[in-house]
Amino acid sequence: MKAAILEAPATELIVTSIDCQEPQAGEVLVKLAASGVCHSDLHVIHGTQATPLPVVLGHEGAGIVEAVGPNVTQPKVGDHVVLSWVPYCGQCSYCLSGRPNLCSVVYAALANGTLLDGTSRLSRGGAPVYHYSFISSFAEYAVVPASGCIVIQPDIPLDIASLVGCAVMTGVGAALNTAHVRPGSSVAVIGAGGVGLNIMQGAQLAGAASIIAIDINPAKLEQSVIFGATQCINSAQTDAVTAVRELTGGLGVDYSFEAVGRPQTMRQCWEMARPGGTVVMVGIAPDGSELVLPATRIVREERHLLGSFYGSARPHIDMPMILELYMAGKLKLDELATHRFSLAHINEAVHLLEVGEAIRPIILYD
Ligand SMILES: [Zn+2]
Ligand SMILES: [Zn+2]
């Protein structure tokens, strides 16, 4: 099959033929229809996130089940599926308590570049090629854990559905599942990329009265309005914390979100929430970085500091619900899909995301 391989950090992806083994016990072979390109893929390409190389990146995929391995009862051959990059074991304490996004078995294996049994199904000339986040959707086919396949209605366009696998789930989930945004509340979102825009539309869906978008890119701020932003702050031109307080009677917002993954903007996010408000960290900061907070004010001002990993997703419940909202016209997903490419042109897609011109470039397969 054709796949795009990253052989070394800071190099272009190489589109080439590789081998893909059949699915083993508990695994599924999916013929991909589409894959979004996400900033996490860029982090690996740039070398700021480590993963075993050579690797097939891509973790925002959707397609049709082509074959299933032994012991797989769900999904079935022919099912249309969105791929979740946080599959789950179904047996650990997190899974049993309804928090499968924190599955301890999966979390331990996430960065290994393999499937759950510690081996890879991908190879080239007999040498192993590694998976990325259990998916590797920059390829015509993917072997994935069955618990990472979310069956969806066959009338939903698969290119749009693919985006639910990362950006949409992460953003909408942060607003609805992690923060439980209340009707009439005020919200600020730092970072108006694929995830940030979905936090905004999640907050809008929850009934937020005001949504303040913060970014340094004027084009992204313009796009924010489509996804529910009521006010925009260009943080390259003004101090964002001061500006948010000015817009909220001096107090700050009820809910602040950080979707960039930098300690500086995380601290700003904490300062933007009003005393008693909720601060939600969504962007993943570089390994080893630390966040410094004023110790006295943490107690006196009673802000709630929450981490949100993969939108606190329960993928089999949340992803079909998100797509139902899309089909009902209540979530904007078509507007996220700004560019489409064939696999042969994947480096152009990567470049568009890098320079901030695309919200989501999508790779389409035949
Ligand atoms: Zn992603
Ligand atoms: Zn588990």
How do you describe this structure in short?
The chain is of the alpha/beta class and 366 residues long.
Brief descriptors of the model:
366 residues, alpha/beta, Quinone Oxidoreductase, Chain A, domain 1, Rossmann fold, 2 domains, 7-stranded mixed β-sheet, 6-stranded parallel β-sheet, 11 helices, 29% helix, binds zinc ion
Bound molecules: zinc ion
- Which value, in Å, is the CA radius of gyration? 20 Å
Strand content: 25-35%
Annotated CATH topology of the largest domain:
Quinone Oxidoreductase, Chain A, domain 1
Order of helices and strands: EEEEHEEHHEEEEHEHEHEHEHEHEHEHE
| Tertiary shape | globular
CATH class of the largest domain: Alpha Beta
CATH architecture of the largest domain: Alpha-Beta Complex
Unreliable spans: none
Mean pLDDT: 96
Helix content estimate: 25-40%
The CATH superfamily title of the largest domain: Medium-chain alcohol dehydrogenases, catalytic domain
Separation of the first and last Cα atoms: 12 Å
Sketch the major β-sheet.
7 strands, mixed
Number of structurally distinct domains: 2
**Count of DSSP strands:** 18
What would you call the structural class?
A: alpha/beta
Q: Please tally the helical runs, counting DSSP H or I stretches of 4 or more residues.
A: 11
Describe this structure in words.
- The chain is of the alpha/beta class and 366 residues long.
- α9 (295-300) links the parallel β15 (273-281) and β16 (304-307).
- 29% of the residues lie in helices and 25% in strands.
- Strands 4, 5, 6, 9, 10, 17 and 18 form a seven-stranded mixed sheet that branches.
- α4 packs across α10 (315-327) and α7 runs parallel beside α8 (263-272).
- One zinc ion is lined by residues 88-89, 91-92, 94-95, 103-105.
- One zinc ion (ZN) binds at residues 88-89, 91-92, 94-95, 103-105.
